[in-house]
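Need tokens for this chain, all 164 residues.
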Amino acid sequence: MEVKGKVWRYGDNIDTDVIIPARYLNSFDPAELASHCMVDIDETFAQKVQPGDLMVGGKNFGCGSSREHAPIAIKASGVPVVIAASFARIFYRNGINIGLPLLEIGDAVEKINAGDVLQVDTTAGIIKNLTTGDTFKAHPLPGFVQDIARAGGLIHYIKEKGSL
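Here are the structure tokens for all 164 residues:
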């Protein structure tokens, strides 16, 4: 999958309570969750994010509670991929389960700033910063993870395979 978008940049240890605060967890509606995404750290995000914009975080992105609501809120905001130095493992797994590609690039993430425009190839793991000219190499997503993302998440993937 190839995407191009503007960067929304966040720092280290962005936890799931920041991504979607607990007071909004009474809904499972993706659009409702998206309307509150990042509100406690960036009150402009939900109103200003555009479909195709990219989220970039630092180390340990998605730490904290294991709630699936966090990657759902990001994906429902129109963000097609999240890039970070590293991800909390349960967030990484939840991202895969709901079909949100997550790419790790280590300390190279420090060369990406808010507002930069990136071109991302999740298949090859290539991230080009069109603003600065820098190119980064992430671990490409394994084929089956790409298939899950293309299907829109694990449940849809399994249904396509005829296992449900």
